[in-house]
Amino acid sequence: MSIQANIAAVRRAIDEAAIRAGRDPKGITLAAATKVQTSDTIREAIRAGITVCGENRVQEFNVHWADGAYEGAQVHFIGHLQKNKVKYLVGKVSLIESVDSEELLRVIDSRAQKLGIRQDILLEVNIGGEESKSGVRPEEAEALAELAAALPGIRLRGLMAIPPAAQLSRGNGRYFAEMHQLFVDIKAKTYDNRSSMDCLSMGMSGDFADAIANGSTEVRIGTALFGQRPPMRING
Ligand SMILES: *Cc1c(COP(=O)(O)O)cnc(C)c1O
User: Fold this and answer.
1) How many CB atoms lie within 10 A of CB 145?
2) Nearest CA to ligand 1 atom 13
3) Quick one: which of 126, 134, 138, 111 has its CA closest to 56?
4) pLDDT in tens, the chain (236 residues)
5) Is the CB of residue 197 below 6 angstroms from any atom belonging to ligand 1?
6) 199 near 218, Cβ under 8 Å?
7) DSSP codes of every residue in 179-236
8) How many angstroms separate the alpha carbon of residue 223 from the centre of ligand 1?
9) Is 217 in the pocket of ligand 1 (CB under 6 A)?
10) Largest CA distance in the chain
């Protein structure tokens, strides 16, 4: 199958899942998870209708950015982010989805203030409580969200989660439902503040229909668009 055919099939499946859930398909963004893909593949995906590229690694982002590969699309950063690499992303990517500590949040804020902008971010929540995963604990998310909503260089847009990998094909509904509840609660708490909570990023190739049934507004899809990758840490 071509990337173009894969994109069409995935988009159709997203739309069907939305309709089954009584939701407007337009309310769900398809982000192409482009890790390990070449600049040419990224260009091909954008030509075929991809409007958001999800990048995991700053190094790969820098290469594709220098190549001009993202022209016509936005970039969301979805991988684990080190504080010393924040400067490569702020002001270039439209959303940093993987903010998982107060320290990282403050570094992004100060970089954005230096550039005179506000950087859109999501807080990553470790909803499965896994040792190996990034993300704040669910019970810490609200306090960090309140801080994010108060920082002048930050615009809090919502939450992101990667549920446990062992259950990716089935049974993540409970985690997605918990994420949705957390999203609704935090949205209520930060209302009137400077946040604009409109993004709940969850769902991958194996479980996006389940995520959509539970309120996801952005699914991040790699394998179903580009085929199998060589084995690696998903969050890396
Ligand atoms: C790789 C990756 C995805 C996509 O995973 P697939 O199972 O290939 O669809 C989504 N989110 C993150 C954070 C990723 O690293």
Assistant:
1) 26
2) 78
3) 134
4) 799 999 999 999 999 999 999 999 999 999 999 999 999 999 999 999 999 999 999 999 999 999 999 999 999 999 999 999 999 999 999 999 999 999 999 999 999 999 999 999 999 999 999 998 999 999 999 999 999 999 999 999 999 999 987 555 567 899 999 999 999 999 998 877 666 899 999 999 999 999 999 999 999 999 999 999 877 655 54
5) no
6) yes
7) HHHHHHHHHHHHTTTT----EEE---TTTHHHHHHTT-SEEEESHHHH-PPPS--TT-
8) 8
9) no
10) 47
**Ligand 1 near 128 CB (within 6 A):** no
Sketch out the chain's domains with CATH numbers: 3-226 (3.20.20.10)
Query: Any residues with CB less than 8 A from the CB of 45 and at least 6 apart, and which?
Result: 3, 7, 32, 34, 37, 53, 225, 226
Ligand 1 atom closest to the Cα of residue 98 is 13
Q: What's the gap in Å between 114 CA and the centre of ligand 1? A: 32
Mutation pick for ligand 1 pocket among 133, 170, 199, 234 (CB with most ligand atoms within 8 Å): 234
Nearest CA to ligand 1 atom 12: 78
| b (16+ CB within 10 A) / e for 209-232 | bbbbbbbbbbbbbbebbbeeeeee
**33 Cβ partners below 8 Å, 6+ apart?**
54, 56, 78, 204, 220, 221, 222, 225
